[in-house]
Design brief:
alpha/beta, Spore Coat Polysaccharide Biosynthesis Protein SpsA, Chain A, 8-stranded mixed beta sheet, two-stranded antiparallel ribbon
């Protein structure tokens, strides 16, 4: 019988982390990487017997790597504070812990829920469950990805993602992370942002959400979410334009 470490990365998640901790109650240890929370996140985690480590970073990869470094057991399961493990997925994971697996990691299917219980039509697949010795590291500051030694399988069941719960938190999230996104593009030497790039990226973001991800099946929620994706990428590129504009002004 193998053992498992559940890892949650959290910052100011007092309203959501309890559900995530309860969802990982089947794990042999629960680790919370607390990124300078100013609310009761740490207190709630400790009340649920989680091991809390304080780690300041604006890089998701650094936080996930730190969680990996302090984890004790054979398998690693990453969960965000606004995610929950379905009963079917929990049983799939328990079967791996009981019998082992030839795979080094597994894709987990994730269902997204917007504004409460409105399910998004598109189901994602994310690498979140790993043999500890086979997960080498995470790379990428914002859109992180794992470096794995070996094959990746897929498990039955779902992660349930309670994302975009209200418009206020959606806008706050965009303001928070768009600056990081813009800086990453700026440091990578992104070409100067011309006027035509704004409608181009906004239309692409809208169509990806509304058509490719079948947001049109979600009614008004689909329109709101797809427009939000266009707004989010607009803010990112507007901040990138500002960085480039300010640098040119300094160079004059």
């Amino acid at each position: 019988m193998y053992k498992i470490s559940g890892i949650i990365i959290a910052k100011n998640e007092q309203n959501l982390i309890k559900g995530a901790l309860e969802s990982l109650s089947f794990c042999d240890e629960i680790i919370v990487i607390d990124n300078e929370s100013k609310d009761r996140t740490k207190e709630i985690a400790q009340k649920h017997k989680a091991k809390v480590y304080e780690f300041k970073s604006d890089s998701f990869s650094e936080m996930r790597n730190y969680g990996l470094s302090v984890a004790t057991y054979d398998w690693i399961l990453y969960l965000d504070a606004d995610e929950r493990i379905s009963e079917e997925l929990k049983e799939s994971i328990k079967n791996i812990l009981a019998d082992g697996s030839k795979h080094s990691a597994f894709f987990l299917k994730r269902r997204n829920y917007y504004f409460g219980k409105n399910e998004w039509p598109y189901v994602e697949k994310l690498e979140r469950f790993f043999k500890k010795e086979k997960l080498k590291e995470w790379k990428g500051k914002l859109h992180e990805s794992p470096v794995i030694d070996g094959d990746v399988g897929e498990l039955e069941g779902h992660i349930l993602h309670l994302t975009h719960r209200d418009l206020e938190s959606m806008v706050e999230k965009t303001i928070q992370w768009s600056e990081t996104e813009a800086l990453l593009r700026y440091n990578a030497g992104h070409p100067d942002v011309a006027w035509w790039r704004f409608p181009r990226v906004m239309i692409s973001a809208f169509l990806s959400s509304y058509i490719k991800q079948r947001g049109y099946k979600a009614g008004a929620i689909g329109v709101i979410e797809s427009m939000y994706q266009a707004f989010s990428i607009f803010i990112t590129y507007a901040k990138l334009w500002e960085l480039q504009h300010n640098q040119k002004a300094k160079n004059k």
